[in-house]
Amino acid sequence: MPPGWWVVDGQRVVAGPFEDRGEADCCDLPPEYVDDDEAISRLRSAYGSPRADGTFDERPSPEDRAWEAHLAEQLERIPGSLGKRWLAGDRSLEVAGAVAVATALVEVGLPLHDCEGHSPLGGACVAPAQDSISVTWSQHRRAIFRASELDGRFHAVQDVMTMVITDVLAACLGVTMHGDAYEAGKAHPALLDRETAEERAWQAHLAEQLERIPGSLGHRWLAGDRSPQVVLAAEIASAVFEAGLPLYDSDRQSSLGGVYVGRAWQADGYTVVWAQHDRQAHLHVRGYRVFDDVQNVMNDTLRDLLRVLGFRVEPDGEESGFLVTGRARG
Description:
The chain is an alpha+beta fold. Helices cover 41% and strands 18% of the residues. The strands form three sheets. Strands 2-1-3-4 form a four-stranded antiparallel sheet. It has a four-stranded antiparallel sheet with strand order 7-8-10-9.
């Protein structure tokens, strides 16, 4: 029998197979488990197939394999080869601490910044420090190049993103950030000399992100459409990407997290909401409470970030996020 999702009690198969984990989690239980809280507490959803002797042969699910591959790629961005050492089996406290922090950030949808690889893309830089782990935010290199032109917005964005890292790690791991991460995240003066090659790279990165906006709005912008609704969508997407955050690709049902920018149905504007990685959004590996806490942290941060970036932000009565209806006056 091909592997699938089952409900198991220890190594004993109770129900299945199911097409996905969500179906297994919500299935009707056999009569002997009804009203027996102790028995129900032993049940779990697992991927694999039953053996001939009735025991369960558990295997990594396709979602688990995709997550492990994605996490491994992200962990290799940690400076000092800490991520590579973890993947090679090093479980020292220094390595384990950095990996725990990095994993929590990736699970909620925040990318890691490849500090040593000099990547132009933004993200969280997780690095070893003296007896601690340093976590700072890096905006897209385009924002760093333009720091002197942004009238204080660069540093305001840096403050907002430093705070969200603090809040996310507090929600996920119960840890508190100390020290001045903002100072570590300031732009290096040498980066302020913009180069044409860097600008071309930015345009290529931005084009890929714009194509993630639902309703083909990004495609229309890239094709030359400058109607007001297309312009606003492109401006929102460009601003959050320049601040270092990826966009969520809802049309392709991506498993990765990011900023969802979608046309609002009940108002003139765009719904903006954070999407966590499927590992937390659908599997809730850290629990529903952590999911909700992180969702609130990230949505509040997006709201503050977009206000800092000069957008008019309003409550959205129909969604868990908020509405962006245009540029703020003044």
